[in-house]
Amino acid sequence: MKLSHNDSEAFFRLAWSLQLFVNRRKGILPTVSTVEEYRILPDEQRILVRDALWEEPQLITAYVAENPDGFSEGDLAEVQAWAGAIRGDFYIERYLKDHGVFIGDNAVFAVIGLFKPLDEVFPEYLLPLLVQAVLLPFRDKIVYDGYMRSYSIRFGGGIKRSLRETYMSAKQQGRIIATLETKPANARRAKR
């Protein structure tokens, strides 16, 4: 329920390079000038840059056009695909062997973890859980951008039942979204 170690490394190499570009453009952390410096910052500081990126997602296209890090066309395509990110509040309804089930507005997504499985980020006993997240395509899967904010809300039986029914309906209709393709006709569906 997570990326391979190599894919995780590749994801963060691209994400942190993009975020460093945003940091330079926005002047959020002016003393930070390298990915190595950025990587070791406390999460609270990196989240400031991450939030600035999602306030102006057009910076992704600017980054790809400039290619300040000399990335390959394949790497740039991975980054450009993030312009199709889905931001918002999601219910994490359950964990399956291959992914977590995220329910957003009128859609159910199969999301996997980055370096850690999702159930290590938010233990299963907390589910269902409402989180604020950014879902991204990466290597034909859906991941989150590295940060999720959870809401301290407990849900009663009615909401739990409604979420379960939403998941079951999506499963039965083959409507669990497992990848965020730019061409909807090519979107794969999760097996579960």
Provide an overview of this structure.
The chain has 192 residues and is an alpha+beta fold. Helices cover 41% and strands 20% of the residues. It contains 7 helices and 7 strands; from the N terminus they run H-H-H-H-H-E-E-E-H-E-E-E-H-E. Strands 1, 2, 3, 4, 5, 6 and 7 form a 7-stranded mixed β-sheet that branches. A hairpin with a 2-residue loop joins strand 4 and strand 5 (141-144). Helix 1 crosses helix 3 (43-55). The protein starts with a helix and ends in a 15-residue tail after the last strand. The relative contact order is 0.15. The model is unreliable at 183-192 (pLDDT under 50).
Quick tags:
192 residues, 7 strands, 7 helices, alpha+beta, seven-stranded mixed beta sheet, single chain, 20% strand
